[in-house]
Specification:
Number of helices: 9
Largest sheet: 2 strands, parallel
Order of helices and strands: HEHHHEHHHHH
Strand order of the largest sheet: 1-2
Structural class: mainly alpha
Strand content: under 5%
Number of strands: 2
Distance between the termini: 57 Å
Shape: elongated
Radius of gyration: 29 Å
């Protein structure tokens, strides 16, 4: 009981250290965000869908609100690899040396996929959404007056979810590589997963079939790619487990051999001792 309590306390202490590290680095990244926020805001205003949109401030505090949102966004992007590393460092003590090296190499790929998700949503999805809304407004005879604060809020609501959704292949590969997830389960519940992705796409796209498919199809492909990658990781896990089993059996065989040899030597020593006693 005492050993279990101590283990729980140690885990809690380790989590606390990891969270403190993340908070410290987030504070540092926010400072960097203040330096990068202004040029990023100007870039987002003058490029992409916003280039042709008249953006207005409806509130006195809108400029500072936008500035802070961009600062937090930059901070999240910068600190994401650190969060991934802290998570890896927390679970790594329970992994084998080969598993540590392999799973650590996933972090750069996960970050690149996050950037890919953001890029997909900004350069592919967002222009289509803006065009659809403008067309719908014209059809309904509505004159759009877009607030810059609302535009940036909408922008980040699209960018961040896609950044995290694109982490799916790495997350499933990580879980399958450690043996926590069997890819056959992903294939078995494919229909349920498709339904969940379908609902997610419905929440983040305009209510028309084309834009919905524009998001749903890439998500389905991402899920199928994740299954393939997870199968590769799971095969490596099974191979590592088989190698571990062979090594354990070999170690046990050597242990038994050493014990038998020690016992044989002990018996020889006893016989020699008796013979010496008889001679004396």
């Amino acid at each position: 009981m005492e050993e279990r309590t101590l283990t729980i306390i140690e885990h809690i202490e380790e989590i606390r250290k990891r969270l403190i590290t993340i908070v410290v680095f987030f504070a540092i990244s926010v400072i960097g965000g203040f330096l990068l926020a202004k040029p990023l805001i100007k870039f987002l205003q003058s490029n992409g869908p916003a280039a042709d949109l008249p953006l207005n401030a409806f509130n006195v505090i809108d400029p500072i609100a936008i500035y802070l949102k961009v600062v937090v966004f930059i901070g999240i992007v910068i600190i994401l690899p650190i969060i991934m590393y802290q998570f890896w460092a927390f679970v790594s003590p329970g992994l084998l040396e080969t598993e540590r090296r392999v799973t650590l190499s996933y972090i750069p790929f996960a970050f690149l996929l996050f950037l890919a998700g953001i890029s997909f949503s900004y350069f592919v999805l967002l222009p289509y959404v803006i065009t659809f809304m403008e067309t719908l407004s014209a059809d309904l005879g509505i004159t759009q007056t877009i607030g810059i604060n609302q535009y940036f809020s909408f922008l980040f609501q699209i960018l961040l979810p896609f950044g995290f959704v694109f982490q799916l292949p790495v997350v499933l590969l990580f879980l399958s590589r450690l043996g926590f997830l069997n890819p056959s389960v992903l294939a078995k519940y494919r229909k349920i997963a498709y339904f969940v992705l379908f609902v997610i796409a419905a929440f983040i796209t305009p209510p028309d079939l084309v834009s919905h498919l524009f998001v749903t199809v890439p998500l389905f492909l991402l899920y199928e790619i994740s299954i393939v990658i997870a199968r590769i990781g799971y095969r490596k896990f099974l191979k590592a487990e088989e190698q571990r089993r062979v090594e354990e059996e070999e170690a046990e065989r050597l242990r038994l051999f050493a014990e038998a040899k020690a016992e044989q030597q002990r018996q020889i020593d006893e016989v020699n001792a008796r013979m010496k006693n008889q001679e004396t």
